[in-house]
Prior knowledge:
heterodimer; A: four-stranded antiparallel sheet; 11 helices; B: alpha+beta; four-stranded antiparallel sheet; 13% strand
Amino acid sequence: MSDLLYGEIEDDLRSGLRGMLDERCAWPDVLAGAEKDEPSDASLWGVLTGFDVLGLPVPEEHGGAGATWRETAVVMEELGRAVAPVPFLTSSAMATAALLAAGDELLPALASGERTAVLAVPFGTAPDAPLPSVRVSGGRLTGGIRDVADALAADVLLVPAPDALYAVNADDVVRAPVTSLDMTRRLGDVTLADTPGRVVASGEEAVRAALTAGAAMLASEQLGLAQHCLDITVAYLKTRYQFGRPVGSYQGLKHRLADLWTSVTQARAVARHAAACLAAGDTDLPVAAALAQAHCSRVAVLAAEECVQMHGGIGFTWEHPAHLYLKRAKADAIALGTPGHHRATLARLVDLPPA
Amino acid sequence: MSTAPPGAEELERRVAAFLAAHDPAATEPLDFLRARFDAGLAWVHFPEGLGGLGAPVALQQGVDEAFQRAGAPSNHPEGNIIGLGMAAPTILAFGTEEQKRRFLRPLWTGEEVWCQLFSEPGAGSDLAALGTRAVRDGDSWTVDGQKVWTSMAHEARWGILVTRTDPDVPKHRGMTYFVCDMRAPGVEVRPLRQITGEAEFNEVFLTGVVIPDEHRLGEVGEGWRVATTTLMNERVAIGGRAALREGGMIGVVTGLWRDRPELRTPAAHDALLRLWVETEAARLTGERLRQQLAAGTPGPEGSAAKLAFARLNQEASGLELELLGSEGLRYDDWTMRRPAEVDFTRRSPGYRYLRAKGNSIEGGTSEILRNIIAERVLGLPGEIRVDKDVPWKDLPK
């Protein structure tokens, strides 16, 4: 059985990151950034580079920190808690996983933050779903890929083609910004027209590794987000008075929060299991990742929805952070496969065939 | 003579020495168990002379396994859950030396089975409202009242009993805790038939039952504090068993799904997978809790475990019945039986469905557990208490 706890290094990493994010990525900053044209917070990304967390699972000989996906998951939790607008999931988890599978030369540049890469697939693509159809001819790529997360924040696109995964210079493609439901992780539509590419890995293996790692890591982001929604809702209900009582003294709300706490507690075990399986290359990884997405997606959305509802009117305003979390939570639930898709995957993996 | 508590190696040595001196195959089971108790190898974390050696509780499992491997007789803990899990720790914490010496050995060996006389028809979730009266008469007490949900009362030699001794003070203050002789005149045990048709539990009527003062546990008026110790041990006894993927009720349903393709429907498929996901999440949560306990950093997750277990058991058993369609309409047996333990697997799906309804009521209702999580874990304000500072006798009943 995998180790589901946090180690001392992870606790230290969390506390350092949280202090920095509270200062550099407070929600009013995030909200203000959401209304600007910049696709992500480049200055915050620079600070994260200084924390040496962009290449945690990358071995030292490839310029990484030589840590594991377990520590990476803790970073995901903290970034989720802050709805941080940085391409960590897309570059430091997914693209990094693809490059690790291929042992690619780009790894040091990604780990150091010198370059940022994203996997050019629609963000809703599940680890076992069909890939976009890009044509390849003489090493040049042609096709359109919609809804690519952080497409505009990247300078390298990893493009799956029928024969191989290609690295494409982002300046060589047309990237159209998409007005995105999640304002803190924006999408772009990518168009390739006879664009030159470099083969990173043949076949689909590296892409599938990236999507699976993404699904496993996203669960920790969802956990951090859900825990934060629960925390701020509990704190608010202790101070908000109606009918002469704190709103949090009403059983109708207390019981829902107790259930939510139970769900978040479960999400922690599930997300830790997925991170541990990814870190160890455990054979249970496909089940653990699908389970994590099927469960944590539901919990994060529930937490964000309860956060909006239990804050009442203020929770429905632009001036309150609840909507940032709701948008991220709902987008995350669709990202890398919906809960329904992951349940169907589980049905196949654990031999519970459909009717 | 008291020295540093023994470690794993020392315990291993003592078990080996004990087995060398008491051949399990050639010793009367009861003699063997009594000797094991006297050697301090019964519950190793108990004090010396009371069945233990003051060793860490974590070493118990290794000792039990060593005895089991040697083919040693069992004290059949499954038949004395209340005694071992609740009465013993309470007697250890609050009993006099004489009480500890009188009660603990036959309790551990299984010679004397125990039951719990706590709940009453008018005091369920609000246990502290209980009204069974105990009136002092010199060196003894006379008890009148009615207790309910008492498992094993019909086989028990002793009961742990909470009573009202002072109705003029608020409810938490006027209680006193006793050990009740279940063979005493005035103790009447009646089976309590439940929705499954069987009777796991009893009602116990106490009419003019005389209890000597030397069977009082803790001070007069301190019964609530003693009872709280018992109830805390109940939570420990219920939580924390290792589980395998698809263990328990979910395994019954997934087995049915795989074995009987003709029962499958799209709606049931979705319901089954949702349940599979939630059950696996609950299992991993239990595993994480165990790892926390082993690392010496217990978290509050335990209170969530029973809540999740109750709901999942109910949903899985309900789904099983629906999957079966008309077949699910047949019930195996409504005869009033007196089962020694709950067995979900050997009865019909209808039984499982009905028995699972008790999971969210017994040992703390799901609603009370949600209150506990909201108030103790999340720190939300408590319910408004209309009974605070009101003498028990003036409470609406």
